[in-house]
Amino acid sequence: MIERDTVEGSPLLDPSTLSDGDIHGDPPGRLKVGGAAFELREDSLWISDSNYVEESKGFSCFGLRPNNRKNNNTQIILYHYILWSEIIQNTLTITYAERTTKTRLTPKTLTYTVTSTSNNSYLESWITNLLHRSNHTAKKRKRIKVLINPFGGQGKAAKYYARDIEPIFRAAKCDISVETTQRKSHAGVIAEEIDIERWDVIACCSGDGLPYEVFNGLARKPDAKVALGKIAVVQLPCGTGNAMSLNLNGTDNPAFAALAVVKGLRTSLDLVSITQGDTRTLSFLSQSVGIVAESDLGTENLRWMGNARFTYGFLVRLLGKTVWPCDIAVGVEIDDKTAIRDEYRKYHGQTTGGDSKIISSSSSELDTPNETLTTSISAGAGLPPLRYGTINDPLPPSWTLTPYPNLGNFYCGNMAYMTADTNFFPAALPSDGCLDLVTIPGDIPLKRSLTLLDSVGKGRIFEQPDVRYRKVSGYRIVPREAEGYVSIDGERVPFEGFQAEVHRGLGTTLSRSGRGYEASGPVLPG
Ligand SMILES: Nc1ncnc2c1ncn2[C@@H]1O[C@H](COP(=O)(O)OP(=O)(O)OP(=O)(O)O)[C@@H](O)[C@H]1O
């Protein structure tokens, strides 16, 4: 029997009359089914059920919270944790992810018998309303091509998928197809051949290596631009480096990342063309030359140390070789930390006073295609043309190749977090058409270098006087020495000159917010 609740003297609003704009409005949708009363509150579903006895829970403030304000027959489930709801054979089911341990989510299903079908349309509307509130504008029942790197991280990706990820996807009624990568670069081949109409998402159960291959696989399609704009590439953190998930899902825990993907909003992502020799590849995360590249790629033999190998590699180099002389030309968009911070705040609506310059000034290749790009779209194939040419072309007229004889660290980021503890590019935004470029001299006194290292872990790198922080739309870097490391998204490429150019919003991913990274923004003293 479905009843319209008239508690507190107010007749129930019929949810079928709610439009999207009413989703967070009053009054909430209420109903009674199978002896339980349901109420759609602003951020959560409240269920009063005399059959429900609150369990003692160690992690009570997450998926399922005991309600101390009423009585212990009331369950409160945050919308973020609700995975699905439907009527099956006269039974209302509500499935949600319950936090069963500190790191685990387990799907649970509540069932309530519907004893009469007389008000079924009301119940259907209520379910629609519940799912609207639980998913906002996120696509429900996403169609997900899952790729598993069997050697990612410590070889546990398949285990994490089976235990932590797949149950969440299935409970949310996602359409899933799983493929295990058979060899290096296989993920790129799968992406290159994928039917972009069949899938919404390619989800990489891996480190950052598979998403890199997938973006580049999509880039090799004849309709690369369309493919990159259509398929959302996401990472489910099962590798050593899980920066993509940290920035977009806000976690490096596979179960919570799976939930974030289920709830994820489509988000445009800048991708960066890297030309080196005769190759053109896409980077989505970072490029580095100098101490960061060396600390990562030059310590592969120390993998047994875990993440400590980066710090170890960094400190060893600080005490030894600290400069990597290069010539660098930069297409600068903003060259001032205060302006960068202010633009970031404007973008996130933290200040008043006009639109963010970062977003509105540079012409988006997707929003306002130029003539050349339009030609490429009408040709229907490939990546956008390069505005700044390749490493083999003359420099763009506005760029100047400048010697950096004492360069210690050249680090360019498209996302904020590089590791769980390292918000290295706090001003990074997913589709501002810019990379965040950090350059640090290598000849500063050791004490100041150690202060810098300390500031990285504290999230204070942006404000350090020795750190030059710029928003750039492209650059060229040419090492002067014969040997060293260049890292593109954590992958080693030849130690020779390369050029980078940002394509605003060329790629697509999913994120919790739909517009920013899960990181605190740039901070300056005062
Ligand atoms: N079956 C396979 N055999 C060998 N290599 C594979 C296989 N599947 C994927 N790879 C490769 O594993 C590499 C690392 O992938 P990934 O980033 O997922 O893991 P990771 O643990 O974070 O690794 P790393 O720390 O080495 O970057 C990629 O270059 C990918 O091509």
UniProtKB/TrEMBL annotation:
BP GO terms, sorted: sphingosine biosynthetic process
MF terms (GO), sorted A to Z: lipid kinase activity; phosphotransferase activity, alcohol group as acceptor
Originating organism: Tothia fuscella
Region (Disordered): 1-28, 350-371
Family matches, as Pfam families: DAGK_cat, DUF7493
SMART domains reported in the protein's UniProt record: DAGKc
Listed InterPro entries: ATP-NAD_kinase_N (IPR017438), Diacylglycerol_kinase_cat_dom (IPR001206), DUF7493 (IPR055916), Lipid_Phosphate_FormReg (IPR050187), NAD/diacylglycerol_kinase_sf (IPR016064)
Gene Ontology CC terms: cytoplasm; membrane
Domain DAGKc: from-to ranges: 139-278
Protein name stated in the entry: DAGKc domain-containing protein
